[in-house]
Amino acid sequence: MTKDKILEAAIHQYSLHNYHGATMQKIAKEVGIKPASIYFFYKNKESLFVAAFQKLLEDHFKRMQSILEEVHEKPILDIFATLIKGTVEYHKNNMNETNAYISLVTSPPAEIKKFLHDHMNKFDKWMIDSLHHLIKRDHPKISDEEAVNLTRKFILLLDGIFWEINLYDDDELSVQIEQAVHILEVLLGGNYNAK
Amino acid sequence: MTKDKILEAAIHQYSLHNYHGATMQKIAKEVGIKPASIYFFYKNKESLFVAAFQKLLEDHFKRMQSILEEVHEKPILDIFATLIKGTVEYHKNNMNETNAYISLVTSPPAEIKKFLHDHMNKFDKWMIDSLHHLIKRDHPKISDEEAVNLTRKFILLLDGIFWEINLYDDDELSVQIEQAVHILEVLLGGNYNAK
Amino acid sequence: MTKDKILEAAIHQYSLHNYHGATMQKIAKEVGIKPASIYFFYKNKESLFVAAFQKLLEDHFKRMQSILEEVHEKPILDIFATLIKGTVEYHKNNMNETNAYISLVTSPPAEIKKFLHDHMNKFDKWMIDSLHHLIKRDHPKISDEEAVNLTRKFILLLDGIFWEINLYDDDELSVQIEQAVHILEVLLGGNYNAK
Amino acid sequence: MTKDKILEAAIHQYSLHNYHGATMQKIAKEVGIKPASIYFFYKNKESLFVAAFQKLLEDHFKRMQSILEEVHEKPILDIFATLIKGTVEYHKNNMNETNAYISLVTSPPAEIKKFLHDHMNKFDKWMIDSLHHLIKRDHPKISDEEAVNLTRKFILLLDGIFWEINLYDDDELSVQIEQAVHILEVLLGGNYNAK
DNA sequence: TATGAATGAGATTTCATTCAT
DNA sequence: AATGAATGAAATCTCATTCAT
Description:
DNA-binding (chains A, B, C, D); Tetracycline Repressor, domain 2; HTH-type_TetR-like_transc_reg (chains A, B, C, D); 83% helix; HTH_TetR (chains A, B, C, D); homotetramer; DNA-binding; mainly alpha
């Protein structure tokens, strides 16, 4: 559908050139239509990008949910590792969207700032709740506070890996993922010297 | 000096609006000159931004070096903590430059990509070398491999915190910094009898 | 059609002010549109002028062909005279195009140099072939070499007249045309003292 | 002297890009000074070019005079031939100035039109007078009217050759010069028993 | 649904010129 | 005699948008 293709092209162009550089011209060209035609589907550039960003964030959220769903029966360390690897894999396979997502988070256009903040809260809450529940399932003796802190540490590591997707090539990134998993192992098991 | 003021204004406008949104008009206005005057100092927009980005990366590097210099006599855990806090503090105090730095890293203009990559390599190499040396100083029994891995873990945590500067407010960020320091403590065997 | 009107205005402005003086502003004003609209039809100034110059040269060629066609049944001296007078008349009536043509030939923009050279070759070849054939028709005893040289002489005289269109007013030019015709008469007939 | 070098650079740039394209920037660069420095010597662009064009026309005139002076003792046909060859040679060796001269004649800037017209008249008058006198010297029987017409024919041929300097390469031009000389030979009765 | 044609606004850049030094 | 610094004006071109078809 043309409307969806416009959305995808908008995200792609945004990932390449940011808001001001993602021109209606370039978007239209990528879709194979004329700029005037975009206005049949979207009122103007701003509303096109509001729609594009919503799709972007929702896709990202859904993806994270589906990863968690797939692995939620495994032990918590496996879940952690799978989430990290799944995140990396997803972003490697969707660099367009990921770059757009990063640009969006780091310098959101004024119009979408509120929407973005709400989304982030929802996402964080969901992840903390889900992980907290799974930690307690596997390690019933861990206190609530410890479980929360462990979740926070996991998110911190996930954010570190996420940022490093931009900085490192595949091999270096694999090493960093190992480091992250190893940290979680230590935190969960205490069998540090066992490694 | 006008030339330097132009550079700073370019970075500021870049942090606000990215490359295409940082117009010569806005930059000139911020400096208090007319757009045409910029061309006396810089051949064109591209070369202005190449100069701006070089300054940005060099400033960032120098700042990290000076933080490390200030604390290098303390125990390694303090150094880790200070580096993390110093990084956060620096970025909080220089949001212009930080946002510009992030935009630059996530979606660098084609012309500066090589320069950026070289800089990143230099910076990483410097940080790994410096920390490796300090870890061995305080924990002489740690093997080279372990020291390298510890450094990598520290960088991973630092990257996580760095990314979260964008996402969290001050209080939340403090909590995350605590988590990071706690992880490093654990890794260094602080409250782990296992080590 | 707007596209054609732009072309004509470009030629006119070029004849008045040369390439750098023929601004998009002036061209648009002459057409009755805004400068930005030109870019709907032509990618940029350069490609507009490449198109304009092609039209210019083609028009000139076609005109010369049609003159020759009209008179080719008359005796060769009449043909010579008609070609000279036709050339002058055409240029007097199309001073825009003629001035543009001269500017083009004397200082062609780099982009059109090859096209210009090819055109000139084609034009020369056509004129020499056509005239050679007509000379032999009327004066079968003239050798091939003599016919070629006579053609060359005619072209030389035509070029002289052409250049003098710029220098002389109408009366002076008429005198010069007479001189040219007289020379051709002499060359063809040898009855020099007859005049 | 800088003032003269500016003049030469102005002519050169004019020959390359015409009035609007010959910028103070380019002229200054060719001289090796800064644009602002030109204003020490010339009030503004217009007065610089008035001076440049005067020099151009005077140089051209002087050159023609000196050629004539060198050969005025030879027979008239030799004088004709030498003038033609001298003109070509001069222009081939001074393409900068020649192109500037042609541009000037074909599309003079408004400010210099009067000066140009006066110069042309003076030049023509001088050439007609000089040649008329020399024709009568060698061919005392030729009537005044015939002498005038012969001079006109010579000028016509000279103009033809002049225009062809732009169109033909060296070899082709040599052939055309031969044609011109041959015509003059015929007109002077060289190998025509009819006269 | 889609486009051709057009435009106002504004972006980048160039240019002639000025003026203090 | 020459320049560094600056600017108003204008040139080229882009961009979001409109509207009739």
